[in-house]
Amino acid sequence: VHIVESGGGLVQAGGSLRLSCVASGFVYDDHAVGWFRQAPGKEREIVARIGWSAGGTYYADSVVGRFTISRDNAKNTVYLQMNSLKPEDTAVYYCAAKLIYKADYDYWGQGTQVTVSS
Q1: Following DSSP, what letter does each residue of the chain receive, concatenated?
Q2: What is the C-alpha separation between 83 and 16, in angstroms, rounded?
Q3: Are 34 and 93 in contact (CB under 8 A)?
Q4: What are the beta bridge partners of residue 89?
Q5: Potential cystine with 29: which of 5, 16, 51, 53 (Cβ 3.0-4.6 Å)?
Q6: In this structure, are residues 28 and 116 in contact, taking their beta carbons and an 8 Å threshold?
């Protein structure tokens, strides 16, 4: 199993970024993919989640209306479109995958840094 994130960077408050997560090596229909983030000194938190086949989504309250998670099954890729970014969105963003029926995420990427300047 291999997960690779990309798309992070430095952006001014109010700007946008799109993160990409390319996943390979597992049966996609059985898995859900989530985006997490961890800011310095804070615990890791889930930002958004999507079922690979069913497409059901979940968003943390802090990103509702600003972030959108989507997938392209043909490219084995999950995206996180982040708009109206705020300095408090600054964190390392991780992509992870798990079997749909499990609570814990088994597979993690290396993370991509997102920095939002004020």
Answers
A1: -EEEEE--EEEETT--EEEEEEEESS-GGGEEEEEEEE-TTS--EEEEEEETTT--EEE-GGGTTTEEEEEEGGGTEEEEEE-S--GGG-EEEEEEEEETT-SS--EE---EEEEEE-
A2: 4
A3: no
A4: none
A5: 53
A6: no
How does residue 92 score in pLDDT terms, banded at 50, 70 and 90? very high
The 10s digit of each residue's pLDDT in 76-85 is: 899 999 999 9
C-alpha distances out from residue 72 to 28, 60, 107, Å: 11, 22, 19
Chain-centroid distance of CA 88 in Å reads: 16
What per-residue string of b and e applies to 100-117 under the rule 16 or more CB within 10 Å gives b? eeeeebebbbebbebebe
**H, E, C per residue of 17-43:** EEEEEEEECCCHHHEEEEEEEECCCCC
Edge-to-edge strand ranges of the sheet holding 17-24:
2-6, 17-24, 77-82, 67-72
| 36 touches 94 (CB < 8 A) | yes
